[in-house]
Structures are given as C-alpha cells and as structure tokens.
Amino acid sequence: MLKWTLKNLIAEPWHLFASVSAIAGAFALVMFFEAVFAGESKQIVAYIDHSDADVWVMQKGVSNMHMATSFVSDWKAGSVGEVEGVSKVTPILYLNTVMQAGDKRWFSFIVGLEDEGQRAGPWAIVEGKSIPAHHEAIVPSVLAKITGLKLGDEVTIAGHTFNVAGLSDNTFSMANSITFITAPDLADIMSTIGSMSYFLIDAEPNVDASELALRIKNEVEKVNAIPKERFVNNDWNVAMQMGTEIIGMMTIIGGALAVLLTSFAVYSHTIRRERELAVVKALGVQNRVIYASVMTQATWLAFLGFIMATAMVWLAVPITASFVPQVTLHVTPLGLFRIGFTALLVALISCIIPVRRMLGIDPVHAFSA
Amino acid sequence: MFILVLKQLRFESTRSILTILAIAGIIAEILILQGFLAGLYAQLREAVVNRGGDLVVTQAGISNFIAARSILPQSVRLEVEDIEGVEEAHPLTGISAIYEEAGRRTPIIILVYDTAGGPTEIISGNLIPGEREIIIDRALATKYGLSLGDPFEISEFEFTVGGVSTNSAAFLTPFAFIKYDDLIDFYFESDIAADIATFPLLSFLLVETKPGFDIPAIATQIEKHIESADVFLPSVLAQKDEALGRELMGPILGLLLFVSYGIGVLIVGMFMFTAVRGRSRNLGVLKALGFTPRSLGIAVFIEASLLILLALPVGILLAGSIASIIQTIAPVYLVLATEPTAIMKTAIACLFFATLGAFIPLRAITNIDPAIVFRS
Questions:
Q1: What distance in Å separates residue A120's CA from the closest CA in chain B?
Q2: Which residues of chain A from 179 to 198 reach within 8 Å of chain B, CB to CB?
Q3: Chain B residue with the nearest C-alpha to that of A270
Q4: Enclosing domain of residue A319
Q5: Share of chain B above pLDDT 90, in %
Q6: Is A229 inside any structural domain?
C-alpha cells in the first residue's frame, strides 16, 4: 500500500509540483515575515543589550529608552557611585531625533558619550574610529550603504553638522538607528547644561542587580534604577509599537493565508484522487488503510512544501542583506518548527474531509463512473 | 466561449469557490500591507496639516514636524508677529513622553497649544481642555480603557481626561493635547529634571497671515529676519514628514509587500496552472472538435479574468473587514486597505500571473494529437 501511495502521489508530477509550490509559497511568506519580525525584535534593543550595564539609572518616572526623554543632574553620578555595590558609573546623554545626509533623512537615537566613551560607545566598528571627537559622529554602517556616506562626509543633526569618523556594525533597526557623538556636542544640540540622560551602572562582583537598583532608588533622590533585563524588556515593549507590531500582525494574517492555501492545495490534491481511492475501497481495502495512505500523501505534501519554503527563505536571507541592508532577518529554529508543525497539522486536517466524504460513496459508483 | 467557461466553473463549483477564496485571501493580504503603508504616510501628512496655520516656523535646521526635537526661543514669536503680513503666530510645543499604566507603556506626543494646533475631531468630551485636563487620542483611550474624567498620569503629574480625539496620531504614536498653563505646572510639579531649560517651551509657531498678502513672500521675510528659525508651508513640512516615514518604514514594509506580491501572484499563477492542466482532456476534446488554439487561449484568459474578478470584491471585503478589526483594536493604526490605486495594481498583477499560469500548460495541450484524446 505504501508503494501504491507513493506512486499515486507522483502520478501527476506537474500537479504535485504545483501543490507543493503553493504550500511552499504560502509558508515561505510566513517564514520570511517571522524572520523579519524576529530580526527587528532582536535589533531594537541592541544598544541596551550590548552595552551590558547591570543597572540603568534614569529620571524618576521614566522606565525605558525608546522615544523617552530623561534628564538626571550630572552631579548625581557621584551620588550613585557612592552607593554600596556600584563599581562604575557611565553617564550618557540621549536624544531621539531626525538626522540628515544629503537629501536622505532618518530617525536616530543620538548617544552623547563622555571622554572615556568606550564603555557606552559602539561595540563593533566596520571602519574608522570607535570614539567620536568634537564635531564627529559614528554612524551605523548600514546607513553608509544606503546613503553612500563615507568617512569624512557630513551629516546634520538638528541643524548641527558633524563629520563621519566611524562606521559601526549592528547598530541599525527599523525603529531606531544609533549614532554616537560626544556628550558636549549633544548637550549643545539639546541646549542643556549639567544634565545627563542615563547612567550605565556596573555592579561589583557578586552584587545582585535587582537589589542594587533598589538601593540606588532609595539612596539617590528623584531617580529611577532598573536592572538590565527589566530595562531591555521595558524598552522592547515600547519599541515594538514603532512598526514591528505591524510585522507581527502581518505574520498572523500571512499565517492565516498560509493555512487557507495549504488546506486548498491538499484538499485539491486529495479530491483529484477520489476515483482511485473509491476503486481501492471497492477492492476491499480497509478504511483505516485508505486514511493512512491519504494522510501519508498529505504529510509528504506538507514536508516537501516546508523544505521548499525553508530553501526559499534560506536563499532570501543573503539576497535581502545585499539589496535591503536596513532589514535584519533572523530565522529561529523555534519559528521553523512552529511553521512545519502547522503545515503538517493543516495538511492532515484538510485531507481527512474529502476522504470521509469519499468513503461514504457506494463502491459501485466508482466503477460505473 | 464565455458561457462555456462559466459552465466549466459551475461544474466544478467547490473547486471554483475554493480557488476564488484562496485568490481573495492573497489579494486581501497584499491590500492590508499596502493599507498599512498608505495609512502611515497619510497620518504623517495630516499631522502637520491638521494643526492649521499658513506657515510653520521651526528651529533652524529642523525640517520635520514629527520625530524631530525643535526648540524655538520665546522671543521668536514676537519677531515673527512683527513681520508685515503676519496676523498672528500661534505657539505649539511638542514633547515626546511615555504613558505608563499597570506595567504597559505607550510612546505619546504631547502637543501643547494655546490658540491653534489643537485636536480637530473630538469623539467625546471637550474640544478645548480645561484646567489640568488632557485630550487624548482614541488609540490611548481604547488601549487603556480610559474615559472622560479618568486620571492620566505622566511623570507622576496627574491630568484628567477631558476629551477623546480621533485622527490625531502619526508615526505610530498617539497624540495628547494640553494647554500652556498646564505645561508650566507639569514642568514644575512633575518629577522631571530640575533644569527646566532642558525642556522645550516652544517648538513651533503656526503663522496665520493677513488676507491679501503673499504667503511665500512672508516666508522669505521670516527666513531673512530670524536666523534661529526656518519656515515652511504646512504642505511642504507634511511632504518632508512623509518622506521621513518612507525612509524609515518604506524599505522594510516595502520588502514585505514585494515578497507578498511575488509569492502571492506566483501562487495565483500556480492555481491557474493546476486548474488548466487538470482539464487537459476536456481542452484536448475541444481542440479535436475544431476549437483553434487561439479560441482555447481566449477561454483560458476568460476563466482567469472571471476568477480574479470574482475574487477581487471578496478580497476587498476581506481586507476592509480585517482593516476595520485592526483599527478597532488598535486605533493608532490607520489601514487604508481599499485605496483604488492599490486595488487596481493588485488586480492587474494577479490577472497577469493567473493568465501566465494558465497559458503555460495550454501550449502543451494545443500540441496534443486529437486521436490520443479520444483514445484515452
């Protein structure tokens, strides 16, 4: 029966190819959307993640970074430094605004670094300097690709001109790109004196970050202190609302479409074999064997569709990186498993409906047809 | 020929209905994605245009209304009002903030206004906020279940919801409106920094001109006399905001749209390929009965067109329904899923690939020897 099942499956190779392609196309769409969603989700908190502070200190009432405005008097860095368990305090100034290079504009997180910028500065450099000097900016390398920016070119931030001194890696996402300049330059743009936005706190060894955050909040007036994991989570929740949520919604809609298309493809494939199956039944083959045969075919369809979809996305990843470097794709094993499992489930359900109907037909009809 | 195709579709009614539903699903998916983009750009354009004024004055070097931090010196207002032809310069301040309630956070833009620049459409409450009142966009009201009279706390300063507005969100961010008197209280009483100079008191001026004066000429005078400011027609600033949105969201959503289009229309083509190939024998018989390859081609084209034409309204309806659901659940999104241009583009693309998909097997069929058809 297994041999017959496989022969039956490949009896019409063009039809098999069309069904598998339809399933693959539908699931490739979902996989691609999910890869974009996962990539962006990971990238939107890249700065907080990579700067790897144990605790973040900010203005009271503020609890994240994305689209937030936080000001803390710079002298409070000293007060925070005196709290037991604090090893190092790195203040940064921060502004989200529009940057310009030529006629291109983009939304950016501007991070103002103090003299020793290594702690809070870019974590990977593609070209040029890693720490900006006065009137210099370190911009994401992705932006350089899009805009054609080179080292030494000019960018404008709120009417102030900066020279590109370095190109950083892994600092771009749809919701934010990260640009580094000096804190005095950013203070000048923001017309602020004596204020910083966030303090990155490194804890002494074996100090619990949550307890340290609580101590800072209790001992330093009008500040909020949040351990890294919670700060990442807070920021992720806000940043997701800046477009990534749309990709999430589209993934759900695409998923629904994939389910519909897979059902249709498997249903059509099964219904085309109605007559053969009826003949098999008339020849005395048990219903459960027929069910097993049809379900095996549906499983093959889902499996081949899934393999083809994975191959399509696997090919799309480098192509996307070359042509649309702004987009970060991240294919996760969990995402693939979820899609594969869904494809299989839908295929099995879709094949059962026509078989049930067919098994109710009088075998005589199969021969007379 | 048309009747023959219609009969064929009716003969395989279940299959035809499923094909129409599948194509409709693809059309809906593409329309929704295009609707997200169109809505996003429309919101960005309207954000500044809806504020009013014949001209908008910004900080020098700032050429966006949304997403940019503009700070104007207070004195600029008087300087602008001294320019000949200026009736009044209405102040407007934009502050980015995060609204937080029960662990949930939403980025918002607080627009502080006096005589112009406030909300344009109110769905409940007052158009002008009273003392310590705030008018919030319905996206916020829906998300947090807020209604008139409810407290609305930002940086531990409590406002009362005095109105709920609509059409007041852009850049995926809902707006909230307060009056200038409350801004000062907010700065002094909330937990924001001690240095009040850090926070913007004036971001933009909405310039109202006197009748009969040439607006571009007034703009030139403002640019000439006030170094610390730039001036734009609202429509120009709207275009720049839209361009920013295109730069920011265009590549990623455009890529998703491209992939959706590519895969969607290929699937449509594949459906047609399967449908036509599945009927090879019938088509071969028609050929044997004297139908020319051209007439068979017309039949296949009519079939593809009919399926797309039938799927199109279903797809539009589906897209419209899903867009309504999204906008009801999350009103911050404007999903213009039924824009005629987008519908037209999608229909043409689907029709092209459906026809292509149907024509590929047709070539093989027209080469079949009629004798073989009858023998089989």
A1: 22
A2: 190-195
A3: B15
A4: 2-44+241-368
A5: 52
A6: no
| Cβ-count burial B179-194 (b if 16+ within 10 Å, e if not) | beebbeebbeebebbe
Q: How far is A157 from chain B (nearest CA, A)?
A: 8
pLDDT in tens, B245-274: 888 888 888 888 888 888 888 888 888 887
Select from B14, B63, B69, B336 the residue whose CB has the most chain A CBs within 10 Å, as the one to mutate to test that interface.
Answer: B69
In a domain, B237, yes or no: no
- CB nearest to B195's CB, from A36, A194, A260: A194
Query: What mean pLDDT, rounded, does chain B reach?
Result: 88
Q: Is A117 contained in some domain?
A: yes
Q: Residue B9 is part of which domain span?
A: 2-45+243-375
Residue B162 CA from chain centroid, whole number: 28
Q: Is residue A247 part of a domain?
A: yes
- Overall number of domains in chain B: 2
Q: Are residues A88 and A203 in the same domain?
A: yes
Nearest by CB to A105, which of B247, B326, B330? Answer: B247
Q: Which of A64, A95, A250 sits opposite B256 (nearest CB)?
A: A250
> Burial of A230 by CB count in 10 Å (0-12 exposed, 13-18 middle, 19+ buried)?
middle
Q: Are A314 and A216 part of one and the same domain?
A: no
- Token code pair at residue B371: 């004798």
Report the pLDDT averaged over residues A130-157: 92
* Segment B204-241, tens digit of pLDDT: 999 999 999 999 999 999 999 999 999 999 999 999 99
Q: Is the pLDDT of residue B131 over 80?
A: yes
Could you give the CA distance from residue B373 to residue A16 in angstroms, rounded to a whole number?
22
CB pairs A-B closer than 8 Å? 209
Q: Residue type for A338, please?
A: R
Check whether residue B272 and residue B202 sit in a common domain: no
Nearest residue of A to residue B106, measured between CA atoms:
A238
Distances (CA, A) of A30 to A255, B26, B318, B342: 6, 13, 19, 22
Asked whether residue A54 is domain-assigned, the answer is no
Residue A257 pLDDT more than 90? no
